[in-house]
Design a protein that fits this description.
Structural class: alpha+beta
Order of helices and strands: HHHHEEHHHEEHHE
Distance between the termini: 93 Å
Shape: elongated
Strand content: 15-25%
Radius of gyration: 28 Å
Oligomer: single chain
Strand order of the largest sheet: 1-2-3-4-5
Number of domains: 2
Helix content: 55-70%
Largest sheet: 5 strands, mixed
Length: 177
């Protein structure tokens, strides 16, 4: 005679208890769908990127604390991107293009120096590239350089040396509106 099986394995007991409570099954299924939807939208990836230790993230933490609200800072791998929205003073708004260009380049140089002074020098040197997008009502200026060149701006104090350094290391693209 075969022995009568009483009870069962742990899996059998879990399945039997879940079948007695169908609301619990629906709740578990909805939770799984919710978690997979978060993963599909990239919520976990964004959190992972924030916790990933890179030199760009180190620079980004310092810049986010010390820059004005008109600056939008972001990192993608080892590339720092800074978008700056400028408001032109009334006397510059209607000025000639040469005066506007001088003003915008001076502001760009000041902003690059501000980036250099408000971030850790070691982290900025290890940042591969820095993109600065300066937007205004009449002209946009995009500047690209390496982090090690911007890190040197923190120590240069003579305006002539700063201008020479920027001419040699920063690639600029102008876009008039």
């Amino acid at each position: 005679m075969s022995p009568v099986r009483r009870g069962g394995t742990l899996l059998d007991m879990i399945v039997n208890s879940l079948l007695k409570k169908p609301i619990l099954i629906i709740g578990i299924l909805l939770m799984v769908i919710f978690i997979f939807d978060l993963r599909r939208r990239g919520i976990f990836f964004g959190r992972y990127q924030k916790l990933k230790a890179t030199s760009c993230n180190s620079v980004l933490v310092m810049l986010n604390r010390r820059t004005p609200d008109t600056w939008k800072n972001s990192c993608k791998e080892s590339t720092l991107t800074v978008a700056i929205q400028l408001t032109l003073p009334p006397k510059i708004k209607n000025a000639k293009d040469q005066v506007l260009r001088q003003y915008l380049y001076r502001e760009l140089a000041n902003n690059l120096i501000k980036i250099a002074k408000n971030s850790l020098n070691e982290s900025l040197e290890r940042t591969f590239s820095v993109h600065v997008k300066q937007r205004s009502q009449r002209m946009d200026i995009d500047a690209v350089t390496e982090g090690r060149f911007i890190a040197k701006l923190a120590t240069i104090s003579d305006p002539k040396f700063i201008a020479e350094h920027l001419k040699n290391t920063v690639h600029i693209k102008e876009r008039p509106k």
